[in-house]
Fold each of these.
Amino acid sequence: MGYMKEKVAYLRGMAEGMGIGGDPQGKLIGLMIETMDEMADAIDESELSIQEMDECIDDIYEELDAVEEYLFDDEDEDEFGEDDFLEVECPHCGETVYFDQGMLEADDLICPNCNETILSGEDEE
Ligand SMILES: [Zn+2]
């Protein structure tokens, strides 16, 4: 039994103990308790749905983790050092420049120091 249901049951017992019920006011109180009981049911139901949604979201997160692991598996351990940056010495100006993974996926690597093309496409010297 949910917390709200318990409270309503307590109220119902209290009303019965006080002998409320016969006169119009007693009927009104009886109806109010009935209404609260239905509300408590609705609240319990929503709590259950929320719990189910929580579990669904947990599952989705787990699956996302698996997908992430699959997509990015080991990739940055060999090619990239700390923070996924690749260190390159520019053949034009000799400056050591850093490229992140996103920049490496672009066609050309442009030296931020001298604006010359370091790499055009793949493995071209
Ligand atoms: Zn340069």
Amino acid sequence: MSQIQQSDITITKDGRVFISFLWDDLYSLTCLEKETCDIRPVHWKIPEVLNFEDKTEYKKCSLCPKECGFDRVRYAHPSCGDSKLRVSNVGISFGDEPLVHGLGGSGCIMLSGCPLTCPSCHNPEKVSHGKETTTLEFLRICQGLLENGAENIQILSPTVHIPVLINNLKILKEAKFPLPIIMKSSGYESVVQIKKFDGLVDFWLPDFKFGPCSEWGKKAGVSDYFEMAKESLKVMVEQVGIENVLVRHVLAPLPEREREIILDFLNASGLSFSLSDTFVVLE
Ligand code: SF4
């Protein structure tokens, strides 16, 4: 399996971004088409499972704080997609903080669909497209990442897939899957939904993107981002402990005052946080 690398992100002043941080050729390199991978022997056997078919929560969707009620069973939401679990990319990443990637790399499963429409999204093509993935295929992906030396399973962009993820993570935990589960969140999460991950997630990796009254937050369609992100962070900390939450603030070109408010909050919170400065603003 090739390794995902994290490239610098180039962003224009109006928020358009040119480089994606996950390479394109990784999906075909996973173990999806095979019964097992034989790269490294592991002592974990995929349990027999049924595919997740309960569409109740997708019928009148309230999976993110917008609670818009869209019927994702009948139609595909423009940014969140339909009711199927869709995986856009899989691979071993060394692009995260050392705490996350360790020696073997983080086993990333990037899902498609996101309620945010950030102009600075660095993976728009990944967010909009994804391969329908059954529960068994999801477990095979986890097994493949385990066999390829991943230190953990990192699920990126989980929000619009929470019901099926809860189902799949319960199966992993009940079958004693040996790697910790990291959930990489945009930070814009529903408290009610985050509580459902209790006992299923070992480490939260949320973004903290926007301050109050943020023009960028409005462009992303989440003018209440600051309040919602603060609330969901509280629940993440209660769930896994403050030592198992790492907040990321990407140094996108926000107004200075907004940045100060975000950093004041993070400094006062006692949380570990990292500042990513991979943005390059084109003139
Ligand atoms: S996840 Fe998407 S469809 Fe569901 S409530 Fe949020 S914006 Fe609406």
Amino acid sequence: MKSTATLYLILTLSASSLAIAQSGDMKDMDMKGMDMKDMEIGKMVQSTAHQATGVVKTVDLAKGTVTLAHGPVKSLQWPAMTMRFIVKDKSLFDKLAVDQKVTVVFAKQNVDYVVTTVK
Ligand SMILES: [Cu+2]
């Protein structure tokens, strides 16, 4: 009886800790996914993401840059301006066509602003 009760307790505990571990894993996976993405584009793990909406003026796939005429960016206290962004994830160029209106998420990396998402 005692061993059965103990086994039951162990099973119950491992089932609940498994559930916790699984939800923990999912959080870890999200974090790892973000870290990996950040690592790909350099030391921007600590960078804050900003968002800008604007029109694509030029695209340079070879250099990995895009020039946007973007509206004000409150999080950076930027006025509207036309400027160059770095695009390290080449797949983003699929969404970056000249004259296209886009919303981008970007982060400062050293002296550059790197686009991480195009909406
Ligand atoms: Cu700007």
Amino acid sequence: MSSRVSPFLQGAFTPLYTERTAHRLPVKGRIPPELDGLFTQIGGNPVAPPRRRGAEDYSWFSQDGMVCGIRLRDGRAEWFRNRWIRSRRVCRSLGESRPPGPRRFFTDVVNTNVVCHGGLLLALVETGCLPVRLSETLDTVEYSDLGGGLPIGITAHPKTDPVSGELFALAYSPLHTSADYLVITAEGTIRKTERIPLGGRPMMHDIALTEKHVVLFDLPVRFHLGQAARGRFPFRWDGRHQARIGLLPREGGAGSLRWFSIAPCFVFHAVNATEENGVVRIYALRYPKMFDGTSQDPFAYGACMLWEWTIDPATGKVTERQLDDHQQELPRIDPRRIGRPFRHCYGISAREQGLSTYEPEVLLKHDFARERTEERAFPRGSVPTEPVFVPRAGNGAAEDDGWILHFRIDALHHESDLVVLDARDFTGPPVATVRLPVRVPFGFHSNWIPDAELDAVGAGLGPPR
Ligand SMILES: [Fe+2]
């Protein structure tokens, strides 16, 4: 075991070992009454203090999923809850019986993202295991294959088309050399499944969507049997693999997928993609390398920067360039601009190169029209989490007319807040700050679930299927 305790067990990442419920949380400022819904964060948080705590032994990505949520309603912070996803390990530790439903994978840990679609509140994981259906109060209801249509779990970053409301998703497993591309209607019915041969086992954390295509990333981080056999994070850099981006027509089959070679890199998160006159532009956060065996820490592989790839399928020409010199992660845009031209993007950053995002200290707001980036800096020891943009209701609202919701974690004083910013006054005082009853751990992803979608979740919760 390495002597250095993993950074993912310290500071803002320090796990919580209890579940809490609190009502009527104290609020500074005024929560806009239009913010009626649930703010969630999910991440890896072991159910009990881990035995293997070393930097090279402890894998943040493999830990039990914990969901934290705050319900906002009528200008009040109605409740806070944090709940573990009831995996086999969590149930054993808590002395509970396991939830119903199929898993279809050897591990049933689900910890990466929470989305709401078709009346289902679903926790998702990178690969393999089926989604976990949650109640509107974050309890595990069941593992679900969506009525039999899901062969394996969809990845944690499906994309919702803002016009049709359909969900576009990828499902892959390191056990197979193919992926499944799925389209799920706004009502939650799987209407299209296409098997995509990959010729290997890449890690495919995210996809992007244009109005006509789904964008796939087939990059040199691949499943590694030796790592898996040693119980380590099972993906590793393979420099022999040609990095490539795939363009699949939304309604096309595997035969219409085209691959385009790019320079070696790794992408966890796409920002967005657009399409004009047949030319596709892809915006994503690019690492020069990832998981080459020197560290299990994704932040140890150089600064992550915003890049643009331009692909002209008619000529086959691909160009790529760095757009910005801030290191950054966890990019978010206005959900109404997914697959469409967009002007703003938000994310987390750190002041020092090399400090990386262990301790992000800055929130970013990019304005691509003005080629300007605003920085919202935090004092040392105070860490912001993924900034989620929530548009003000009404279709006429401009792209940055809304709010930014995120946690501020103060690891020194063991405090955390939910912070609401006016997205148009990005560096100004918060609109509202909600004091949470516990210091929440820094997680993977946050989301905002509007009240109307939560109502559908509650209405759909009869007896578990
Ligand atoms: Fe992610």
